[in-house]
């Protein structure tokens, strides 16, 4: 929609249509932004933050989600630097800067002059998609979890998070909040696992859902069970359970150095469509 706006503005519910048109330029890569917009209608009360939009010639050309996660959306280098110039005028509140690598790099070029260094930088994270049938037979023992699984599921979730992020989700007395998050995913039907003899040997979750894709997170196999193909067949099972019930395809992003995970996803049928970067503070 053509408007009289120019420059950078905080978006609201009246901008939802324009924002969704923006995310639809690359709907799978923008799954998180699309999901957040549809579930909050860009209302700051529900966002727990703000979404900024950058206009040129009266049209929305780029956006930036600013909450616990800061995510540039369809942002050129120029757009990302403009968002950073605004972001550094306030104390840093975000814990993660994540998105397409070029936009994250351009944002950080500006923000690094003011914000403290991140505790971890991951500059090469292949963004993967699975749109057709998985290439391997699904593991028939992978299923949606239930509340009855929480006693074995929660420790696996903590172990995965700690290994992946480098800090425990229970630090600072946050165990109740993290347990609530895991419970929420279970209640939504977004948590999947294979449980052998009272122990989780594979798990994965849906992080967010848009009309284009379901983004997968939290993929985990305990160290002593790795190399058995549990992740490959487990992800195939997740695909069968999620597509088309929740979305027409799956997406995720993975650290470039995690060769076993990358091999598992490739064997399942995932292909790379973009490159992400993540800075954690």
UniProtKB/TrEMBL annotation:
- Xref: Pfam families: Acetyltransf_1, DUF4081
Q: Where is the N-acetyltransferase domain?
A: 140-281
Q: Which PROSITE patterns match?
A: GNAT
Gene3D superfamilies under this entry?
3.40.630.30
Q: Which residues form a coiled coil?
A: none
Protein's name according to its UniProt entry:
GNAT family N-acetyltransferase
Per the UniProt entry, what species is this protein from, by scientific name? Answer: Nocardioides lentus
């Amino acid at each position: 929609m053509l408007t009289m706006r120019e420059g950078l503005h905080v978006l609201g519910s009246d901008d939802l249509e324009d924002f969704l048109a923006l995310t639809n330029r690359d709907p799978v890569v923008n799954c998180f932004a699309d999901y957040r917009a549809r579930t909050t209608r860009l209302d700051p009360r529900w966002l727990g933050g703000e979404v900024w939009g950058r206009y040129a010639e009266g049209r929305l050309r780029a956006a930036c989600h600013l909450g616990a996660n800061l995510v540039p959306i369809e942002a050129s280098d120029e757009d990302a630097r403009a968002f950073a110039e605004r972001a550094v005028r306030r104390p840093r509140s975000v814990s993660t800067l994540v998105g397409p690598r070029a936009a994250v790099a351009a944002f950080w070029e500006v923000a690094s002059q003011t914000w403290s260094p991140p505790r971890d930088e991951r500059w090469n994270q292949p963004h993967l998609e699975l749109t057709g049938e998985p290439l391997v037979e699904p593991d028939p023992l992978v299923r949606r979890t239930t509340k009855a699984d929480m006693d074995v599921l929660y420790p696996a979730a903590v172990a995965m998070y700690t290994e992946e992020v480098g800090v425990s989700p229970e630090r600072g007395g946050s165990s109740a909040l993290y347990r609530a998050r895991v419970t929420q995913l279970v209640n939504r039907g977004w948590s999947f696992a294979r449980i052998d003899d009272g122990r989780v040997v594979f798990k994965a979750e849906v992080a967010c859902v848009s009309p284009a894709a379901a983004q997968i997170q939290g993929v985990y196999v305990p160290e002593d069970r790795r190399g058995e193909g549990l992740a490959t067949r487990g992800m195939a099972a997740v695909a069968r359970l999620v597509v088309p019930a929740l979305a027409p395809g799956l997406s995720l992003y993975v650290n470039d150095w995690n060769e076993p995970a990358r091999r598992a996803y490739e064997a399942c049928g995932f292909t790379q469509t973009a490159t992400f970067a993540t800075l954690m503070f």
